[in-house]
Amino acid sequence: MFNVSFMIETTVNSKKGQNQFIKMIKAVLSALLVLVALSSTFGKYIPKTGRRTPQTLSRGWGDQLIWAQTYEEALYWSRSRNKPLMVIFHLKDCPHSQALKKTLSDDVEIQRALDEDFIILNLMYETTDKHLSPDGQYVPRIIFVDPSMTVRADITGRYANRMYAYEPSDIKILMDNMKKAKKLLKSEL
């Protein structure tokens, strides 16, 4: 310790020594700055399951599809493009929602129909429009809305107590209902 302070003291006393001292301080501060930057980079939290992929509007229901962000935006797109709107209500942690999501996202025919013929929106919350829950608020449920902004309460699934609920085994019923929504659209033109 004595040697270092003596060295600094003698270095600072001469003009040439002062310049060397300033250069040494700059070098030490630069090295310290680099170490702080490196430690903050490596100090970021990475979950045990690995890096998370950024969440898209699809939420896993079809990443290659174009999804509306809000109900209002979906209604606007539906009206301006003259396509029916399909609204999927679901919850992230609901096993029924997850099972339907997997089946729907893996079905090539449904994904193609959604891409070409529908405006699509998936919601993990209820909207203020009570017409979107004609028989109650449950998940998963799928509601169709035509371009005139009329909720298609007549297009239902197979259950009497949850008329707009679909299960993975109901994919054929869902596809038939999608065709109904498209056909009625053409007859209304």
UniProtKB/TrEMBL annotation:
Keywords on record: Endoplasmic reticulum, Secreted, Signal
Origin: domain of life? Eukaryota
GO annotations under biological process?
A: intestinal epithelial cell differentiation
Q: Spell out the subcellular localization from the entry.
A: Endoplasmic reticulum; Secreted
Q: Please name the source species.
A: Sparus aurata (Gilthead sea bream)
GO cellular component terms, A-Z: endoplasmic reticulum; extracellular region
List the protein's name.
Anterior gradient 2
- Family under the similarity heading: Belongs to the AGR family.
Give the residue range of the signal peptide.
none
Keyword Secreted found: yes
